Amino acid sequence: MQLKNDLLLKAAKGENPERTPVWLMRQAGRILPEYRAVRESVSGFIELAQTPELAAEVTIQPVDLLGVDAAIIFSDILVIPEAMGLPYEMVEKRGPWFPQTVQSKADLKKLRIANGVDDLSYVIEAIKITKKALNGRVPLIGFAGAPWTIFAYMIEGSGSKTFSKARAMLYTQPEFSHQLLQMITDSTINYLKAQIDAGVDLIQVFDSWAGILPPDQYRVFSLPYISKICDAITTVPKTVFAKGAFFAREEMAKLNCETIGLDWNMGITESRKLIGESKTLQGNLDPAALYGSEKQVEAATIHMMNQFKGSRHIANLGHGVYPDINPEMVKIFIETVKNYK
Predict the structure, then answer these.
(1) Which of 13, 147, 191, 284 is the most exposed place for a label (fewest CB within 10 A)?
(2) Model pTM score
């Protein structure tokens, strides 16, 4: 299907789009009253994500309501451990929780490598419904978590400020750690390929907990597995977003991907120098800037755009939009990017 708006794909490929494309991480979510209405019609986040028609509906909402240049499928990075045989729950105001965790080689035998199509059929179906409903208006982004980030949850059992259990495992059981990371990587490749077959136009890998590892550990236990995913996906553009991995930007420049996402702590000029001109950079307005007044949001956005000017860029925030941000300020951000000259 011919895309009516292909700005995102042009920017990812370095093809000089007519203007900078803009979308937001977590755009299909809690900032929109329309999303909350759909969410309240079911038991919670997991039921919403596992109901393809509703997942498609909330995926499309930001395109209609905010005017973004891409949709990103409504799902969660933790569908991969569940597909591998490690189910999770989403506890209100606390986040994800795994009743069982992975602690030994014996636990690995209880897991399987997810095939992506059957194990995650509800995501694949949501993608197909979304693609049909979008009717080529904008590209659809698919995504998955980076292996280290998924590993961290599978070992720790929940979110954590330190992920000390998961980090300890890298030191005390490196062979076991590599085995589990490879299983996650194989599952993720299968899953992303299934998303692409279902119709996504671009994929993003989220390494949400990259920044809690020291650089030497990150180079051993995260980057090689992200690299394997990038090498395996050959038919659509790829974005890697590694929050907090400021120390790995030069290595990321060597990844087989088109776009590197920057968090709001990564200096734009410095990042361009470290990464080079051959990659598109995505980001990286501080989400907290959207708490400002209309004029402040506009000024912060223009300041960001000025720093990216003249180079390959996809406008976004430096992380997901916060749930209590006024949607009107999000619209100001988006319109300021669209009107930037």
Answers:
(1) 13
(2) 0.97
